[in-house]
Amino acid sequence: MNDSTHLPGEYVAALVVRRSIRATPERLFEAWTDPKHLVQWWGPEGVACPEAHVDLRPGGAYRIANRFPDGSLIWISGVFEIVERPNRLVYSWRLSVGAGAPERVSVTFTRTGAETEVVVTHERIPDEATKKQHEHGWHGCLDGLRLYLAA
Questions:
Q1: What are the φ/ψ torsions at residue 19 (nearest 5 degrees)?
Q2: What's the total number of domains in the chain?
Q3: Which one, of 42, 31, 2, 70, lies nearest residue 140 by Cα?
């Protein structure tokens, strides 16, 4: 099915990105949810995170700034639906540019020996082009998270 055949309210398939990282679920959860850590690793290569705000509770909001190489700034924001420390987060996702219904992100942290498997599931993606952008972004974020925790 190509993008032109989507009806309003329909979404492309969910995106799932996995990465095993040598850290405990507790350490990963903190790095994902504490702004002082988040600004150190968030974003794919070339994208900086100059500012992050997190109210970590169901119904609490978050905002994450993304500064691109050209100097432009885009905010990602949403509301936490589920907070199960240190194993699971579910939250809405909306970019400051564009319109449309919020997307949804679920993140799980599952201990597997000396590592933790991080699984990001991004749902309600409106089209294939956006899905490809998110896939690039999540791979870059997880690379940055792994490098940050290895330092």
A1: -155, 135
A2: 1
A3: 42
Of the candidates 108, 118, 111, 112, which has an alpha carbon nearest to the alpha carbon of residue 148? 118
**Contact at 8 Å (CB) between 121 and 91?**
no
For residue range 49-95, what is the model confidence (pLDDT) as tens digits? 999 999 999 999 999 999 999 999 999 999 999 999 999 999 999 99
On whether the CB atoms of residues 145 and 41 are closer than 8 A, the answer is: yes
120: containing domain: 3-150
| Beta carbons of 34 and 49 less than 8 angstroms apart | no
Give the type of residue at 109. Answer: F
Q: Can you give the CATH number for the domain in which 36 is found?
A: 3.30.530.20
Classify residue 97 by its DSSP letter: S
Give the burial class of 139: count Cβ atoms within 10 A of its Cβ; 0-12 exposed, 13-18 middle, 19 or more buried.
middle
Q: Which amino acid is at 49?
A: C
Whole-prediction pTM = 0.91
